[in-house]
Design goal:
two-stranded antiparallel sheet; single chain; alpha+beta; globular; 168 residues
Length: 168
């Protein structure tokens, strides 16, 4: 299905992501080096560690504190979160942190796969390109049970853990 920018935005809105920016892209057939997965594994860890500048965005995902801490410390990716490439590697995307973003596996990653697959026969496609490293729809953005204080508490706990201060 060949989309234009307007119809791509409408399709994303129908999938519950009306605030997801897109980029127009012409896929380039590429092959991956044999060690691509080894490089990806290292990059994945670096990406998780780079999320220290995204405390507030991650706090709005309302993760349990242990999952939040493990994520921002670069230790593990919580269940139902996915790291996605803005431009798929097989279409010319780079193995680079700037080509990655984090989102919920369900429904976002699942729906983004549907969105991209629906365009598989098009010459020019529209790819999701969120502005930040962490994507969640603005419709569900909000702190946990503690309201805004949850974001502040998690941010402070992460800062303390990273700086070695412990819980002060």
């Amino acid at each position: 299905m060949q989309l234009n920018e307007h119809s791509a935005q409408e399709r994303l809105a129908a999938l519950g992501m009306d605030d997801m920016p897109v980029i127009e892209y012409t896929p380039q057939k590429c092959s991956l080096s044999q060690d691509w997965f080894k490089k990806y594994s290292v990059l994945r860890h670096e990406f998780l560690e780079s999320l220290t500048d995204s405390f507030e965005d991650i706090a709005f995902m309302n993760l349990p504190q242990e999952d939040f801490m493990n994520l921002v410390m670069g230790q593990s990716l919580p269940e139902n979160l996915s790291i996605r490439f803005r431009i798929p590697l097989l279409w010319g995307g780079e193995l680079d942190i700037s080509n990655m973003f984090l989102c919920w596996t369900f429904p976002h990653s699942y729906n983004l796969d549907r969105f991209i697959i629906e365009q598989s026969d098009a010459r020019t496609i529209y790819l999701p390109n969120p502005e930040r490293k962490v994507y969640f729809t603005s419709h569900i953005g909000g702190g946990g049970d503690g309201g805004n204080a949850t974001s502040d508490r998690l941010t402070q706990a992460a800062f303390n853990a990273i700086s070695g201060r412990g819980n002060e």
